[in-house]
């Protein structure tokens, strides 16, 4: 196929068999992890009845994920990627099995709710360690499987698969909690992760890129950091999302909104959890068919501002459909931000540095979700639930305004 036709074909990357295996395995894996996240938030709140306890879930995962991210990036660049991702999936499966054992009647009859909660936090801490190594590997594998000229298409599909898995995990997680309780839902999660392992086994080995192992560990880590801080578009995009997600973590308070404010129970909780991702996957489909071709920097800033506005509307709403709509539209504008940022990272990063740079990305972005969850829990404890979410949305808008004036290179960015 001529190169121009390839770029215009919205399905060009999906036609690569190994890419399909990567996406299928990742889909099931993320569905399981999102179901686990939905379940743990609901489980902890019912064990403790404390908003701060929800925030501590995020803190439990973010501490090891951030602490190990830079070293993990160095390891990823030096490692055979297929083996590393398979090891990560196995360790996540073991964590899910431990949670399954904690959810049994035998455990609840013999161990207090306080100690069950502590055990849950410990398992989540372990998943943070695993995520530091596993999270960036999917993006690194993508770039090794797909030719550079269609990376933008592959990245957009990748975000779409991730968001589809996320919305499925959130929605089905809430439904399964209502139908099967916590124990039955965890059994389903274990099965999903188990199946994803066998799909990912079909990937080809991916040895280190030439040039990745020529420096000491510390020099290698510094090289990755220096690249991020010297590449202004990358730094600006990551910083913007870091603070926007940090202050816009309304999703962390959804268990409280579902149970105590909107009074919609576990099924409504699942749909509210899924709303943001439903909006995001819709917009990603649009972007696959009609890619952004100019003024991506301005569109990124407007998208994050729209997200902050939706958070404020959600915070003040007492009506389920309005709350759902605010999160749905918030997910749509957030999806634009995710696609732009992901494309910048893949196109700007040299092949031999992707593990390190994408690990820095995980520190800025992925871990900001957990920090945002912790911030939301603390703010809810100090200010009350509704004022804390309004505060978060307002701070997101202030971050956008500040970035608009302080980072002109990001505002003018195009790719």
Description:
The protein has 16 helices and no strands. 58% of the residues are buried. The chain is globular and about 55 Å long. The mean pLDDT is 82. It has helices at 3-8, 17-48, 51-78, 81-102, 105-110, 113-145, 151-200, 217-230, 232-247, 254-261, 265-289, 296-316, 320-348, 354-383, 385-406, 408-411. The chain is mainly alpha-helical and 415 residues long. The chain has one domain (8-200, 215-411): Growth Hormone, Chain: A.
Our Rg estimate from Cα atoms comes to 20 Å
- What is the domain total for the residues? 1
Q: What structural class should be given to the helix and strand makeup?
A: mainly alpha
> What is the distance, rounded to the nearest whole angstrom, between the alpha carbons of the first and last residues?
23 Å
Molecular shape: globular
Highest-level CATH class: Mainly Alpha
Classified in CATH, the superfamily is: MFS general substrate transporter like domains
Encode the helix/strand succession as letters.
HHHHHHHHHHHHHHHH
Number of helices: 16
Number of strands: 0
Unreliable spans:
none
Report the CATH architecture: Up-down Bundle
Tell me the helix content: over 70%
Instruction: Please outline the major beta sheet.
Output: none
How large is the share of residues in beta strands?
A: under 5%
What name does CATH use for the topology? Growth Hormone, Chain: A
- The chain-level mean pLDDT equals 82
